[in-house]
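Class prep. Protein, please:
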Amino acid sequence: MDSLIQYSGIIASVWIVVGIYVASLFYPKFSHSKQFCSELGAFGSPAQKLSPLINNYPLGALFILFGYYLIVNFSAHLPTIIIGLLVIIHGLCTWVCGYFPMDADPYTKNPSRSCLVHSWSGMFMLLSFIIAPAIVIFSSYYPIPLRLFSLACIIGCFYFAYRLKLAFEAETVPGVHQRLSYGFQILWLFVYSFCVVT
């Protein structure tokens, strides 16, 4: 159990990639380039019930475990405690996103209450993994390479979030840019987790 908690951040980073791929196998003609990851669990999706079971619920638990690990094992370092709390928030919001599906049509003009909750929770997920690496950047506790890497991940996340906005408005390939934007956040988590547990 201790090993699971210690390596939960690394496990989550790998799990999310595998989980999205596996869930997509149950969604005929699902397009990773044109569709959002959340569309796997959207209302009416062939994988609506399955996707949260594969992705959101176990991932949320892994994020929360890693946040707990950080808080307990770095209790003397306030910045790391805050990062741990942010990782826990990310995990809780991952659960919320799984419990409240988005609408089948991401371009709908009148989103449902569930979709609004999903969207706001997704926003908190985004912010939590922007603030966390930003704390690393400004904390002399962490080595310079990790601080520079954290900066690069934030820049990458913002760049592809901007490209996502353009692709969404043009109705082209928002899925590509969503995955790259969030991918930088997950890459940061993977490297950060590796650095703090080894």
In short: The chain is about 70% helix and 0% strand.
